[in-house]
Structure formats: structure tokens, C-alpha cells
Design a protein that fits this description.
Layout lengths: L1 H13 L27 E8 L9 E8 L7 E5 L6 E3 L14 E7 L1 H16 L16 H11 L23 E3 L5 E6 L3 E6 L3 E6 L2 E6 L4 E4 L3 E4 L5
Antiparallel strand pairs: 1-2, 1-5, 2-3, 3-4, 6-7, 7-8, 8-9, 9-10, 10-11, 11-12
Helix pairs in contact: 2-3
């Protein structure tokens, strides 16, 4: 657990993530076509290293949806400032304070069209939506929010990266149960410690938010701080 964290810390110290986050680039990363030029329904989940030193350990995730024929995308983030659920506070595929996002979920067309109402329903009824509900660790945070959507919409058939600290926070109150994909089981001690085994999720040991494990379906090591080493999430 400690070695990959140390590697991530060195990458942070040698990189440019220590620059002023207030002036960091938040422009489009070019991952989405213009909504007006893409008539199909769209679902995307993006992940990017979070701000400053916290990026050693964690990513921030968000979801973007667009109904068929819509002229704009809708982006949903869960943040620590103001009302936690932030709607269109940033560009749909914008850099997260300088960090280029990674695509976690990519669904277009009729399947996306069928799933978007379920996604919007989860967002509208998410219980941790009041000021002060956000908690960076162990949750609920931005990754807990996106995990709740993925729990309720298993058809997404995806899993957040191991650096999505907070994804294992038991926001639903269940410490034992089936995995979001319904292909395995999990046990969690309040988000601090846990074990997940499933076909979609792979094998994950959660140790105080850091995840160590192996992706069976798309072979890759899951390491705290470093993330995935192997086939990418979108493969």
C-alpha cells in the first residue's frame, strides 16, 4: 500500500500540479463533440486528479448526460462548496484545474437514451444534498455521489478507478451486500475498511480509502495513489 503512494507523491512533487489552482486551466479537453453536432443521447463519467496535494491520493469524478437531440450537455458534480450538487458549474469535458480527465463510462445512442431518466432520478433524490453534507474522507464526497448513480444504474457496467476515494462509503447504510453490478459481493466497515469481489468490480481491498486489487475482466492491477496498471477502463 505504501510503495504506490510514495510513487504517486514523487510524481506530484516532480510535476506541475503544485501550480496555483485558482489560475489552472479549466478549458475543454476536447473529449466531447459539440452537442449541436451530435444528435445521439450521451452518457459520460469522467475522472481527473483532484486539486493540489490531494491529487496524490484521489481523483474527482463527475457525470455528463445529453438527451437525444438536445443542444447542450448537462454536467453534475458533487463539491465541498455551496450546495453539494453543482449543475453545469464547469465545462462538460473541462480540465479539472489543469488535469485532463479520463473517461470511465462512455455510452451513446438508444442505450444512453434509456438510462438517462434513471440517472436524473438518482440525482434528484440523492439524500446527501444539503449544505454541510460533503465530507472529503471517508465520504460522502464526489466519488460517493457518482458511485450512488452507478449502484442504481447497473446497466452502466462500469467501476470507478481505485483512486476514487469515497466510492466505498456505505451511503445506503448497508455494510454487506451485492456489488453495484450485481455480479459479486462486498463488505465495508463504514468506508474505512472493506473487501469487494465481483466480475465487473474485480477484487478490491479498501484500506482507509486506498484500494489495492486486481481487475479480472480487463486485466489490471489496482493500486492506491497510482491507479490502474493494465488495460484502461474504457477498453
Amino acid at each position: 500500500m505504501l510503495v504506490p503512494m510514495a510513487v504517486s507523491a514523487v510524481q506530484y512533487l516532480l510535476g506541475d500540479r503544485r501550480a496555483n489552482w485558482q489560475t489552472a486551466d479549466r478549458s475543454s479537453a476536447g473529449l466531447l463533440a459539440k452537442a449541436s453536432e451530435h444528435s445521439d443521447a450521451v452518457i459520460r463519467v469522467f475522472a481527473a486528479r483532484t486539486v493540489r496535494w490531494r491529487g496524490i491520493f484521489a481523483v474527482h469524478t463527475w457525470i455528463v448526460v445529453k438527451e437525444r437531440g438536445a443542444s447542450r450537455y448537462s454536467r453534475y458534480d458533487y463539491t465541498a462548496w455551496g450546495e453539494p450538487i453543482r449543475i453545469d458549474g464547469f465545462l462538460a469535458d473541462g480540465r479539472w484545474f489543469g488535469e485532463i480527465p479520463e473517461t470511465v463510462v462512455s455510452i451513446d445512442g438508444p442505450k444512453a437514451e434509456a438510462l438517462i431518466p434513471k440517472i436524473r432520478s438518482v440525482i434528484e433524490t440523492y439524500k446527501f444534498r444539503a449544505n454541510g453534507d460533503y465530507s472529503a474522507w471517508p465520504g460522502p464526497n464526489s466519488n460517493t455521489f457518482i458511485q450512488a448513480i452507478m449502484d442504481a444504474v447497473p446497466e452502466l457496467e462500469a467501476v470507478l478507478p481505485p483512486t476514487a476515494i469515497g466510492k466505498d462509503y456505505p451511503y445506503h447504510g448497508n455494510w454487506v451486500g451485492f456489488t453495484p453490478s450485481r455480479t459479486g459481493v462486498f463488505a465495508s466497515l463504514g468506508g474505512y475498511l472493506g473487501l469487494t469481489i465481483g466480475w465487473i468490480e474485480g477484487i478490491e481491498l479498501n484500506f482507509f480509502g486506498g484500494v489495492l486489487g486486481f481487475d479480472i475482466r480487463r486485466p489490471a492491477l489496482k493500486l492506491p495513489g497510482v491507479g490502474r496498471l493494465g488495460l484502461p477502463l474504457g477498453s
